[in-house]
Amino acid sequence: MKNIRGIFITLVVVYVVTAILNDKFLGGYNQSKQLERTGLYGILSLGVAFVIITRGIDLSIGSVVCLVGCGVPWLVVRHGWSPASAVSLGLLVGFLIGLFHGLLVTKLKLQPFVVTLCGLLIYRGATRGLTDDQSQGFGSGFKEFREWGTGEIELVGKFSLPYPFLILVALSIAAWIFLRKTIWGRYLFALGNNEEAARLSGINTDRMIILSYVICSMLAALGGMLFILNGNTAQPSAYGNFFELYAIAAAVLGGCSLRGGEGTILGVLIGTAVMQVLKNMINLVTWLETHMEFLIVGLVLLAAVVMDEIVKRRTAKKRLA
Amino acid sequence: MGDCLLEVRGVTKRFPGVVALSGVDLQVREAEVVALIGENGAGKSTLMKILAGVQAADEGELLIEGRARRFSGVQESQAAGVALIHQELNLADNLTVEANMFLGREPRKFGWIDQKEIRREAERVLELVGLEVSADTPLSELTLGKQQLVEIAKALSTKARVIIMDEPTSSLSLSEAERLFEVIRDLRERGVSVIYISHRLGEVRELADRVVVFRDGENAGRLEREEIDHDAMVRLMVGRDVSQFYQRTPHELGEVALSVTGLRTVEHPKHALDFEVRAGEVVGVAGLVGAGRSEMLAALFGARPALGGEVVAGGSSKVPRSPLEALNRGLALVPEDRKGQGLILEMAVKENMSLASLRRDARGPFVDDAKEEALTVEMTEALSVKTPGSWQLARYLSGGNQQKIVLAKWLALKPKVLLLDEPTRGIDVGAKEEIYLLMERFAKEGMAVLFVSSEMEEIMGVADRALVMHEGRISGELERDEFTEEAIMELATGRSLMNAS
To answer: What share of chain A is helix, strand, coil (3-state, %, to 5)?
Structure first.
């Protein structure tokens, strides 16, 4: 719990400040929109958290979002596939990409950074080639299919629970159980801390690492589908750009150490929420220009990380005393 | 004592919660080798850091040639002629020998590094320590022993008059260590004093003019040259008589639990290894560093691929291809590098202890918390692990307790064959004794125990039988009643092999 205190305080501060600066922020519609965004991006953050816990990294998430996000409407609209088979193929592609990354990282001992950096280039390039660099989308059809990304359960006033958020909640519970309750979760943390010791304790470390890349890429693929179902149009050259960095930032903010072996699902969720509230603040507060988004997000993230480190050191000192 | 080159008077150093040193004294005369010994946590390293200017003393005085000094940094201690050589060498692998020697204090000429001066000085001091390598050799090409000599050469180039060596032989082979001892004696001839910190009492006996013993941050005693012997040193370190702790009662042996034929490792592909270990038997593997002992254990356990051979244990005669396969066949390995290979330092005692048995104890895919807790309680008690609680991170325990956690991890699986690689390295005397007693108990309960050790006393004290390795082959086998230091040494250095041929 001590690991997520800092990020939780950050969330509260950003939330309160935004609420004070703009009265629309707390409105039901806007709050629901926030949950929807958090749901979509959170699925990617969850995935990358698995990889980061094994001391790896995945830079290809944005490109996988692009490949699957453009690929599904391309198959369905241009080639007349049924949504079910397109979705299945999308998930299969995610599975294969993760397997590919994992095998290269474990069997060939390539660095995750390099492997997934190549992935980042390859999957985006492939999407642009496949689609002739043409914008993809469902147009005005496929309303029922798109419900998965756009639907919501209405509650009081204009406040509702969007499907992507509910999907995220379900996935988070599953991820939490996996990491905290199963032996595999224990193995992931163990090998993230000390891969050699884990291997010598009889853990099949290669298989666990491959599994984490598969989970990451499959969640990226799922996220890509929900993004396109939600947003309806995708430009292959830009779709999903920087999404891997949002995901990594959210995971790290939420307490996943890039040194491996550390991280909590709740932290990752809060980290994702902070990013979304910040973006929302920039949109809502009139005197903040939209093109300053990166500047502001970057500064707040840096401040949060610095504060967190200072607090950590102070508690460490207290422990010694 | 007026003729002291370096004198420490009543130095006290407190850290939050502990007094690391309380009023210790130490005198070092010119041209003298003083050995500083004591169990882990006795305060040796703290005093050395104070001498080297890395830390400041809270109380007390430090005199160099009778003048009180106070160092507030390594540069100042260096200027006063004190050099510290760390246990883990502080060298940059990727740089050359000479670049390492002058790192951070490169001689300048018009603002540029004076390469000629560096070369001249480097060659001079390399010769002093008798190291025949070119000054522009990358450090990574040197063996650890030679790197150690580079450190000493570096100290000499700073005009050091007192060189402090912290466990200098811990990763050296025997011949490298011998070389180091020659250099140390040579330094003494030249009037340089050495403060020698070591756990290896054999070395201390061989080298020291005087022995100073620390215990719990205080002076526990002093031995002059003629008083130095093993038992006297141990008595001062531990504060009680421990001469009986090597005694061991042999017991009934069972069936052959591990049978190895023709095992060849990647490191020594030409030599095939053959031996057997029976249930209830404790077999020690002696030999010099680099004789291929650790590689043999790693191959037996499937931690490193073997080139061929048979390993008969646990219902199969194949060489295990992975640690997982090995442990399923009843093998367990306590590796040499406790922190790097044995423990997950950032995980709790409980999580470390259950790591190997987690799968067996699981309910489907889920960790069985109750079983895990029960196991931890049982093991903590059985091995008398000292920890504030099962939640404590392994990082915060002492070396002896950490080793017990690694043992506990394997005991949970009730292995038939226990392999241990240097089971007491870096562990203090009291905890060593406990580990020996545990090894004996496991054997009594019917386990086959095979352990590698570089400490002669350990092999002779604990083993029923010894295999001696030399350059990748088993050069001989000795029964307990044949154990003598000479016999083991002869086989370990390959002397008898040469005589035979």
So the answer is: 75, 5, 20
Closest CA to A171 of A276, A1, A45: A45
Q: Are residues B407 and B423 in the same domain?
A: no
- pTM of the model as a whole: 0.80
Q: Secondary structure of A67-95 in the HEC alphabet?
A: HHHHHHHHHHHHHCCCHHHHHHHHHHHHH
Domain boundaries, given as residue ranges, for chain A: 2-320
Picking from A181, A197, A199, the nearest residue to B367 by CB comes out as: A181
Q: B207 φ, ψ to 5°?
A: -100, -35
CB B306 within 8 A of CB B325: no
- Residue A70 and residue B102: Cα distance in Å, rounded? 59
Q: Would you tell me how many other CB atoms lie within 10 Å of the CB of residue A154?
A: 11
Judge whether B249 lies within some domain: no
Contact B478, B489 (CB under 8 A): no
Of B413, B435, B411, the residue nearest B422 (C-alpha): B435
Q: Is B415 left (phi over 0), alpha (psi -120 to 50) or beta?
A: beta
Backbone conformation region of residue B96, classed left if phi is above 0, alpha if psi is from -120 to 50, else beta: beta
ipTM of the complex: 0.89
pLDDT over 60 (residue B498) = no
By CA distance, what is B14's nearest residue in A?
A321
Task: Tell whether A33 is within 8 A of chain B (Cβ).
Answer: no
Domain ends where: B414, B439, B463?
Answer: B414
Of A193, A196, A321, the CB nearest to B347: A193
In a domain, B248, yes or no: no
Residues B31 and B147 both lie in one domain: yes
Q: Do B16 and A320 touch (CB under 8 A)?
A: yes
Which residue from B minimizes the CA distance to A184? B365
CA distances to A71, B94, B295, B449 from B285, in Å? 62, 35, 12, 11
Domain that holds residue B396: 337-414
Instruction: Tell me the CATH class for A2-320.
Output: mainly alpha
B210 - beta bridge partners? B34, B224
In chain A, residues with a C-beta closer than 8 Å to the C-beta of B328 are 202
Q: Do residue B212 and residue B175 come from a single domain?
A: yes
Residues of B in contact with A184 (CB under 8 A): 365
CB contact under 8 A, B344 and A262: no
B301 to chain A: which residues are within 8 Å by CB? 200
Structure tokens given for A232: 């309806």
**Helix (H) or strand (E) run with residue B196 in it:** strand B193-197
CATH label of the domain that carries residue B208? 3.40.50.300
**Could you report the per-residue pLDDT of B403-430, keeping only the tens digit for each?**
999 999 999 999 999 999 999 887 877 7
Domain co-membership, B349 together with B326: no
Checking if the pLDDT of A317 tops 70, the result is: no
CA distance B344 to chain A (A): 6
Query: CA distances (Å), B318 to each of B131, B180, B313, B329, B477, in order?
Result: 45, 43, 9, 11, 24
From B189, B313, B256, select the one nearest B446 (Cα to Cα). B256
By the 8 A CB rule, do A182 and B367 touch?
yes
Question: Could you tell me which chain A residue has the CA closest to the CA of B340?
Answer: A197
User: What is the mean predicted confidence (pLDDT) over A121-141?
Assistant: 94
- Please tell me whether residues B263 and B289 are part of one structural domain: yes
Domain-ending residue, one of B414, B432, B458: B414
Q: Which of B432, B414, B415 is nearest to B423 (CA)?
A: B432
Does B12 map to a domain? yes
Write A282-286 long-range contacts (CB < 8 A, 24+).
Answer: A284/A18, A284/A21, A284/A22, A284/A24, A284/A25, A284/A30, A285/A18, A285/A21, A285/A22, A286/A22
B-chain CB neighbours of A190 within 8 Å are 344, 347, 351, 355
Question: Using 50, 70 and 90 to split pLDDT, how confident is the model at B157?
Answer: confident
Same domain, B419 and B498: yes
If one counts the domains in chain B, the total is 3
* A2 touching B (Cβ < 8 Å): no
